[in-house]
Write a structure and sequence with these properties.
Blueprint lengths: L3 H10 L7 E4 L3 H7 L5 E5 L5 H22 L4 E4 L2 H9 L4 E4 L15 E5 L5 H4 L6 E4 L5 H4 L8 H4 L7 E6 L11 H13 L5 E5 L6 H9 L1 H5 L3 E2 L7 H6 L3 E4 L3 H8 L4 E3 L7 H8 L4 E2 L3 H7 L18 H13 L7
Parallel strand pairs: 1-2, 3-4, 4-5, 5-6, 7-8, 7-10, 8-9, 10-11, 11-12
Helix pairs in contact: 3-4
């Protein structure tokens, strides 16, 4: 959700009107509310069953239809929304697809106008999935909003965490994703057991599912939850603040890994699906460590206090300019004006 806020601001500054739809999935809607983003909630997540995923994607396209027909947009933009691609194709609305994981399955016979991805995804075959090809930007999508981040000095106090404690943020694997590998769950459980053995260490665990995963955490580690060695927040947090005030991050993959990399916080990935080009780039540059076996947990993760850098030293500021240039390329193209 934070990724789109600078893009929306840029579009509105140029005089464009932006309509935002959201899906009741994980913490998307609560994050939109947290950041004060005006959005319309349409559809929900349909779990890990592949058939339900397909049917749910199609159903959300139909749910979007009356709202989109009313708004009559000239263009649509998403980061990996299959429903929006389907509907845009049916309504002949030019759509721009942004993504940062090249192994997500594309929709057959449907071609967005333009693809936008990090430069680490350098595969000419992917460009064939788009009418105008693929455009790249430097670094990570998380650089766009991390570059303007200002830490809240009272964040740990609000969580009732002592500043002398070692703070570890943990994001469990996406068990409902189509790319989920059960090995990630074994690593997650072992990580919690290992870190729990350290005194003066607090684990802030952010479940992806506020019912299933949250209950699983309380069921497996009731004493640590009661003692607040494990903290499961029951309100929406600014993820960048949580990561910034952490000494390290362990995550099942995705945005939180890359946010930590953008903020120069040590991050360990327990994702066991097919590793994408962006993660390979982060591993090669020493900004991400892969945890592939149970032995890796104890040999690679060292929970110690980290030296926090100044926020002004954070990520590059060029990615947003490159993304806006790609979007404007479509907006200004007479072949796609409506």
């Amino acid at each position: 959700m934070p990724f789109f806020i600078p893009i929306i601001n840029e579009l509105e500054q140029k005089g464009h009107t932006v309509f935002v739809s959201s899906r009741d999935c994980f913490q998307v809607c609560s994050l939109a509310d947290y950041f004060g983003l005006n959005h319309t909630k349409i559809g929900r997540h349909y779990g890990s069953n592949k058939l339900l995923k397909v049917l749910g994607t199609i159903w959300r396209s139909f749910q979007l239809a009356p709202v989109i027909l009313k708004e009559r947009p000239d263009f649509s933009i998403s980061h990996g929304s299959r429903s929006l691609i389907i509907l845009s194709s049916l309504l002949r609305i030019p759509t721009i697809l942004m993504f940062d994981y090249e192994h997500s399955k594309s929709l057959p016979f449907l071609k967005p106008v333009l693809g936008v991805a990090p430069e680490a995804i350098d595969d000419p075959r992917i460009g064939k999935n788009f009418k105008l090809g693929l455009r790249s930007y430097n670094g990570l999508k998380e650089d766009i909003y991390a570059s303007s981040f200002n830490p809240d000095p009272s964040f740990l106090e609000n969580l009732k965490i002592n500043k002398d404690d070692i703070v570890v943020t943990i994001r469990p694997p996406a068990t409902e994703a189509h790319y989920h590998n059960p090995e990630s769950e074994r690593l997650f459980f072992e990580v919690v057991e290992y870190l729990g053995s350290f005194p003066d260490l607090r684990m802030v665990i952010l479940p992806r599912n506020l019912v299933t995963q949250k209950n699983l955490i309380y069921k497996n580690w009731p004493r640590w939850c009661e003692e607040r060695k494990i903290i499961v927040p029951n309100w929406t947090l600014n993820g960048l603040d949580l990561i910034w005030h952490s000494d390290l991050v362990v995550s099942g993959g995705g945005t939180m890994n890359r946010e930590a990399a953008a903020l120069n916080v040590p991050v360990f990935s327990i994702f066991r699906g097919k590793i994408g080009a962006v993660d390979r780039y982060l591993v090669k540059s020493g900004r991400l460590t892969l945890i592939e076996t149970l032995d890796d947990i104890r040999s690679k993760i060292r929970p110690i206090h980290r030296q926090k850098r100044k926020s002004k030293d954070l990520a590059n500021r060029t990615a947003l300019k490159q993304i806006m240039a790609a979007i404007n390329e479509v907006i200004e193209n007479p072949a796609f004006s409506r």
